[in-house]
Amino acid sequence: MVFSTYYLLVGLNHRYELLAPSKSVDGASFRSYELVNKHGDDRLLATLCRSVDPGDVVIDAGANTGVYALAVAATCPDAQVVAFEPSPSVVEQCRRNVRLNAFEDRIDVRGVGLGSESGAATFYRSNYDELGSFNAGNAGAWEASVEDTVSVPVATVDALVAAAELSPPDHLKIDVEGFEYEVLLGARETLRRHRPVVYLEVHDVPDTDRTRADHESALADLLRDCDYRIRRRGSEWHCLPRDE
């Protein structure tokens, strides 16, 4: 009941743009239609905000309603954020929050998922907007249920950079509910050539035979193969190219 009430209120608040409380992350202030300051004490977000310099390009993979993107844009107005969010309803919420702060020139919001291959994938829409996922189990977590499915576009970071549809990033934040490996797999050439700093929120792998330990081992092997060192704080990984 608690989750259902909260997500219902947040969805209505975004839809009708009723209340936009001020948020603060590591000294950066912005407003959004989220009702609470969910990432106010997020250490990985604070690390990102402190690391961004003017002119930097930041990829936000799994932008959700835009907290990371908004915090970076508020911290460093001259940085460029490209926010990827595949959920059709949540990406509209993200766009509302960007417009609310007049950050359209700082944040490019794209209704696209990032993964290991370009194409399209089935997205499970949840009755709790923010729980929509490429995995049915995620979309039906807690008290939620799957409402329907929709096909959404999926791209790889490498293909977008190679086609000049995306500038080579200086920072790559990934929070994609268990699909972290797929995003990194589709960004290997970018990691090797352009050396962005990676900010990784590691989740359990949904509905597979892989254990959490298997998932973390695969992520670490991929990053080390691209010559990155990993600083772990629980599920938060701050990954730095070894040439820095």
TrEMBL record:
UniProt GO MF annotations: methyltransferase activity
Gene Ontology process terms (BP): methylation
Species this protein is from: Salinirubrum litoreum
Pfam families: Methyltransf_21 (PF05050)
Superkingdom assignment: Archaea
Record-linked InterPro entries: FkbM_mtfrase, SAM-dependent_MTase, SAM-dependent_MTases_sf
EC number(s) on file: 2.1.1.-
UniProt keywords, alphabetically: Methyltransferase, Transferase
Name this protein carries in UniProt: FkbM family methyltransferase
Domain Methyltransferase FkbM: 60-230
